[in-house]
């Protein structure tokens, strides 16, 4: 029975992840081009959301996305804000020119 519950949990996680990412990609390909670039951060909030969900799962990644979207507003300075443990953080670290402005600022939060 434990094995069955584990399989069910994995299937539900996969389904929720797929639906969430599908919604974000639909936004990216339909509404986002009409609205134009509005995000004050790199990666964009929608790309951050997809990466956070892929790396941290639908619950934790979704919560990280909500916090990110809340701080993306006209009064925000924006800047580089990679997903912890994700590809964007790795790219940030590989870019020596940006490392002081992105990764060190990100980890001090």
User: Count of DSSP E strands?
Assistant: 2
Mean pLDDT: 86
The portion of residues forming beta strands comes to under 5%
The gyration radius over C-alpha positions equals 16 Å
Domain unit count: 1
What is the helical fraction, as a range of percent?
55-70%
Look at the helices and sheets and give the structural class: mainly alpha
Count of individual helical segments: 6
- Strand arrangement, major sheet: 1-2
Give start-end ranges of low-pLDDT stretches: none
Domain PH: 1-13
Organism: Vreelandella maris
Subcellular location: Cell membrane
Protein name: Putative membrane protein insertion efficiency factor
Structural account:
The protein is mostly helical and 109 residues long. It has one domain (2-107). The chain is 65% helix and 4% strand. The protein contains six helices and two strands. The protein has helices at 2-29, 31-35, 45-56, 58-70, 87-94, 103-107, and strands at residues 41-42, 79-80. The chain has a two-stranded parallel sheet. Helix 1 (2-29) packs antiparallel against helix 3 (45-56) and helix 3 (45-56) packs antiparallel against helix 4. The radius of gyration is 16 Å and the shape is globular. The termini are far apart.
């Amino acid at each position: 029975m434990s094995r069955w519950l584990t399989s069910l949990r994995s299937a539900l996680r996969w389904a929720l992840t797929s639906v969430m990412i599908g919604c974000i990609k639909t936004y990216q390909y339909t509404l986002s081009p009409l609205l134009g670039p509005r995000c004050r951060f790199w990666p964009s909030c929608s790309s951050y959301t997809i990466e956070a969900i892929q790396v941290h799962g639908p619950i934790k990644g979704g919560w990280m996305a909500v916090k990110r979207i809340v701080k993306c507003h006209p009064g925000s300075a924006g800047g580089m804000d990679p997903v912890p443990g994700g590809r964007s953080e790795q790219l940030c670290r590989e870019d020596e020119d940006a490392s002081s402005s992105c990764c060190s600022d990100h980890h001090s939060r």
